[in-house]
Amino acid sequence: MLRLAAPTVPSDATLAVQVERHRDGNASLCRDSVAREEPLEIQLGGASLAVVMRTPGHDAELATGFLVTERVVSRPEQIVSVRHCSQARIPEAADNVVQVVLAEGVEVDLEALRRNLYASSSCGICGKATLENALAVAPPLEDPSRFPASFFYGLTEQLVAAQTVFSLTGGLHGAALFGGDGRLLAVREDVGRHNAVDKVVGMALRSGWLPLHGHVLLVSGRISFEIAQKALAARIPVVAAVSAPSSLAVELAARANLTLVGFLRGRSFNVYGARERVGR
C-alpha cells in the first residue's frame, strides 16, 4: 500500500541571515530564514553528468529522479547506489556531489546525454524539434484513468499545508504526488520547481511505485514544458498547478495524451491537453 511520506525540514535547507525590516516607516534589524541554494553535481560512475542548483535535502531522490526524467533508468534495480561523494576536489564541496552507480548492463552514452541536456536548455532549438525529441524517448500515454472535477478541490491547500520549508522562508517551490483515491502521498520542496518534481519522482522510483499510472502531480507556480516532459517520463497522466501552463507544455500534452490542470484555485480550474480525462 502506498503511504504518505511525512514532511520533514532538512537541517541544511535554510540559512539564518540578518535582515533590516521596514514597517510603517520604522526599520529594525533581526534574523530571518532564507531557503538555501547550492549546486549539486551528479556523477555517473565518477564522470560528471550535470550540475543543478538546488536546495539541499533529499539529494539522493533528486539525482534518482533526474535520471528517471532524463530516461536513463526506469526501474529501481537499475541503480546500485546513490551517495554523497566521500572525497571531492574541494573538501567542503563533498556534500554537493552525488555519485550514482548503475547496475551492470545499464548502458549510458554520456556524451549523447550531455548534448541532450544542453539542447534542452538552449534557446536555439525550435519548439517542433523539442516536442519530437520528447515524444521519441517517452511515447504518448496509454492511461485510461479518469478523475471527477471534485478530485481537484482542495489539492492546493494540501500542498501549502505540507510545505514546511516554504512556511519558514517563503522562497521554495513545491511538488506533490496524489494517488488515484485522492490521498497525498509525498511532498518535496526546492528552489527549482523542476528539482522538486525530480525529488518526488526519485522517491517514487526508490519506493517501487513507477510507472505512476493513475496518479496526479501538483506543482506550485506554472506548468512549463520541462515539468510536462518530466511527468510524461514518469508516466503521470495529470499535472496540475496553481498557475498557467506554457504554450509548449499544452502542445506536448495534446500530442502525448497528457492532461494539464491550470489555475487550480479552490473549486475553479482550466483543463488543457487530454481534457476528457477530467469529468464534469
Q: Which superfamily, in CATH terms, is the homologous superfamily of the largest domain?
A: Cytidine Deaminase, domain 2
CATH architecture of the largest domain: 3-Layer(aba) Sandwich
Q: Measured on Cα atoms, how large is the radius of gyration?
A: 19 Å
- The residue-averaged pLDDT reads 89
Summarize it.
The protein has 280 residues and is α/β, with parallel strands linked by helices. Helices cover 29% and strands 29% of the residues. It has two domains: 38-137, Ubiquitin-like (UB roll) (Roll); 149-277, Cytidine Deaminase, domain 2 (3-Layer(aba) Sandwich), CATH 3.40.140.
Notes on the structure:
The protein has about 280 residues and is α/β, with parallel strands linked by helices. It has two domains: about 40-135, Ubiquitin-like (UB roll) (Roll), CATH 3.10.20; about 150-275, Cytidine Deaminase, domain 2 (3-Layer(aba) Sandwich). Helix content is about 30%, strand content about 30%. It has eight helices and twelve strands. It has a six-stranded mixed β-sheet, with helices on both faces. Strands 4-3-6-5 form a four-stranded mixed β-sheet. β9 (about 215-220), α7 (about 225-235) and β10 form a beta-alpha-beta unit. The longest helix has 14 residues, at about 195-205. It is globular. Residues about 1-5 have low confidence and may be disordered.
List the helices and strands and how they pair.
Blueprint: E1 14-23, E2 26-35, E3 38-44, E4 47-54, H1 59-69, E5 79-84, E6 97-102, H2 110-120, H3 127-137, H4 155-162, H5 164-169, E7 173-178, E8 184-190, H6 193-206, E9 216-219, H7 225-233, E10 238-241, H8 247-256, E11 259-265, E12 268-273
Parallel strand pairs: 3-6, 9-10, 10-11
Antiparallel strand pairs: 1-2, 3-4, 5-6, 7-8, 7-9, 11-12
Helix pairs in contact: 1-6, 3-8, 6-7, 7-8
